[in-house]
Amino acid sequence: MIRVLVVDDQELVRAGVSLLLRTAGEDVVGEALLAPAVLARVVARALRAHQDESSPRELAALTPREREVLALVGAGMSNAEIGKLLHLGVTTVKSHVAAVTEKLGLRNRVQAAETAHRLGLVDDDFRPTVGFRI
Length: 134
Prior knowledge:
By secondary structure, this protein is mainly alpha-helical.
């Protein structure tokens, strides 16, 4: 028997992701096939949901400006580029980067960039997701 479920409703997709996450450790009878585009959306939503669970604690420690700076570090921008974009001096940007690394227990800028990606502050194309365009 073949069963096909076509879902293009956001609430149903969320429910499906929730079900997938709950049953991931259980034996699954049969196989489910999803169109590649649908599967990509389901996986992306599941990853965002997982990130959303851990992100608030880390992000809550940062000020809004520190979040912006962290996102721009994650986008690969230099302190001078960040300063120009945010209308800040380079020394001020360095202070924000130092505050971010201290608050999040990071050793260097590379870890800060990785953290920005993990927290969803930067997308896969290295563009910040915190509300401004570069």
